[in-house]
Amino acid sequence: MPPSRVWNYFTRSSDKSKATCNLCKQEFVYKSTTSNLQNHLDGQHPSAGKRVSFIIIFLTD
Ligand SMILES: [Zn+2]
């Protein structure tokens, strides 16, 4: 799987179980998918989220 652009906006913890939003420093549990991270970008950072959504759809089609 190619690296997702969502990681331009989040930093993974060293054990990769959590991700911290680079824009607001909120921490999220990260479990194999980035959908909850993407939802956060869509809801809290719409200008960033739209770009990420487009790229994820493109990569997973
Ligand atoms: Zn955020």
UniProtKB/TrEMBL annotation:
Keyword Zinc applies: yes
Every BED-type domain range: 1-52
PROSITE patterns: ZF_BED
GO-annotated molecular function: DNA binding; zinc ion binding
InterPro entries linked: Znf_BED, Znf_C2H2_sf
UniProt entry tagged with the keyword Plastid: no
Keywords of this entry: Metal-binding, Zinc, Zinc-finger
Transmembrane domains' residue ranges: none
The protein, known as: BED-type domain-containing protein
Highest classification ranks of the organism: Eukaryota, Metazoa, Spiralia, Lophotrochozoa, Mollusca
